[in-house]
């Protein structure tokens, strides 16, 4: 490697055209970065049709083809860590059927498609990092990518409001109608292809709806909202008057689904993000940052205090129902990995034997809360540790830390927003499962920061 990036040369034995972008049959070139537009601008359609979890994987194919056609692929510093992680992740296939301490013994063939699905996501995430990072500013302007992710924030807020207003809305997707029932009855598959506006919980003592649209889970909704937010602020603090007017409207509207989500992790990350962005932009001498922070805080507090949201917020803080169970699950996950397979992990999750109170425990019709989530869930860090061992976890986190360290002092507004995304991702890593859209968004943020860094070095 040299400079800020290395290169992965393509094999000279397989030459290909040097055209920067694939051409349509009518010799009309597709616009640079078109797969990203297909993913994000069409996301509401993908959710309705049941393809929202798969469109990222599908679009990674044309991205990979374009990278191949470019002939020379640059990689960011520290990419060797990520490449080694991918190799380590694939080694997990060898331990898929190994019994894990504290886990239910036995062979489950369903682990194979789950492992393949997660591996496909890791590869798609790698492809988008290299794809965005290798396109130049002229080919794919940073502002365009920022606006696509800003649009996703608005879509997420809209989906959250839908979950608040129509919490029982759900319908079969197009994909659900054509797939065999043997597949659609699977809990994982159903959660991915069956559109729902909200999920329902009773841990406050009564039934409460938590918005999830247009994603599969309430925690996924919360993580995506927080990670799209810096790009929304980036896109709407500059530009035309309508963008500036839309900014406070959307932020106020998002307050309802944010509170109704009951996601304490989301609340914490939003507070952290607001503090970080205000501090970084204020240090640059941007007066609008302080004005926006103070004005926004006052407006949100007034709306919050004068609505039923305040009571719901306080009830959630007074009901930390999952803290003890999460802590015990993390301890057992780490202990199982240390005892059974500390180097390469177990390839996938495992069901826990019984419950924390007894081996014969577990979920019952009269006690849904008696069940325990599988080992390696309730936080992507614990999944990486359990599925890929401590070596894999070190490589995974090492790459993210390396990229954050490369940009945390950069005063550019894109770098500030990107580092804010990585900070939020680091917090969510401990409590939410992030291997899909959140990690995809984090990789795009890394690619934008790395691309700008490389351009600056080349200009010196």
UniProtKB/TrEMBL annotation:
The keyword Membrane applies. Keywords: Membrane, Transmembrane, Transmembrane helix. The chain crosses the membrane at residues 34-58, 79-98, 118-136, 148-169, 215-235, 242-259, 265-282, 289-309, 381-401, 413-431. It comes from the Bacteria. The keyword Transmembrane applies. Residues 1-26 are annotated as: Disordered. This is Uncharacterized protein. It comes from Planomonospora alba.
């Amino acid at each position: 490697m040299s400079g800020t990036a290395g290169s992965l040369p393509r094999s000279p034995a397989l030459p290909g055209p040097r055209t920067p972008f694939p051409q349509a049959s009518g010799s009309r070139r597709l616009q640079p970065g078109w797969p990203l537009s297909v993913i994000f601008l069409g996301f509401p359609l993908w959710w309705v049709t049941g393809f929202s979890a798969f469109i990222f994987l599908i679009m990674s194919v044309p991205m990979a083809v374009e990278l191949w056609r470019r002939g020379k692929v640059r990689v960011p510093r520290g990419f060797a860590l990520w490449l080694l992680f991918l190799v380590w992740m694939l080694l997990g296939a060898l331990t898929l059927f190994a019994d894990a301490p504290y886990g239910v013994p036995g062979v489950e063939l369903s682990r194979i498609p789950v492992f393949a699905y997660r591996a496909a996501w890791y590869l798609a995430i790698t492809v988008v990092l290299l794809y965005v990072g290798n396109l130049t500013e002229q080919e794919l302007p940073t502002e365009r990518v920022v606006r696509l992710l800003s649009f996703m924030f608005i879509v997420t807020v809209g989906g959250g409001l839908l979950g608040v207003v129509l919490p029982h809305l759900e319908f079969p997707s197009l994909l659900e109608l054509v797939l065999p029932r043997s597949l659609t009855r699977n809990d994982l598959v159903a959660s991915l292809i069956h559109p729902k506006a909200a999920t329902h919980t009773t841990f406050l003592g009564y039934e409460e709806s938590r918005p999830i649209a247009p994603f599969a889970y309430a925690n996924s909704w919360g993580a995506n909202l927080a990670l799209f937010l810096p790009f929304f602020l980036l896109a709407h603090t500059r530009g035309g008057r309508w963008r500036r007017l839309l900014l406070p409207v959307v932020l106020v509207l998002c307050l309802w689904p944010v509170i109704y989500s009951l996601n304490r992790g989301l609340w914490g990350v939003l507070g952290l993000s607001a503090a970080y962005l205000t501090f970084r932009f204020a240090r640059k001498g941007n007066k609008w940052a302080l004005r926006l922070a103070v004005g926004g805080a006052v407006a949100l507090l007034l709306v919050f205090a004068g609505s039923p949201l305040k009571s719901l917020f306080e009830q959630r803080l007074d009901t930390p129902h999952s803290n003890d169970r999460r802590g015990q699950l993390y301890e057992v996950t780490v202990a199982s990995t240390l005892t059974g397979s500390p180097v390469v992990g177990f390839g996938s999750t495992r069901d826990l034997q019984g419950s924390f109170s007894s081996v014969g425990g577990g979920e019952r019709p009269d006690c849904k809360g008696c069940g325990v989530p599988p080992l390696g869930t309730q936080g992507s860090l614990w999944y990486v540790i359990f599925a890929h061992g401590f070596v894999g976890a070190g490589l995974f986190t090492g790459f993210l830390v390396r990229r954050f360290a490369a940009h945390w002092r950069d005063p550019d507004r894109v770098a500030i927003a990107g580092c804010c995304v990585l900070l939020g991702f680091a917090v969510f890593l401990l409590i939410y499962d992030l291997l899909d859209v959140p990690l995809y968004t984090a990789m795009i943020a890394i690619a934008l920061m790395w691309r700008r860094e490389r351009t600056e070095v080349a200009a010196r």
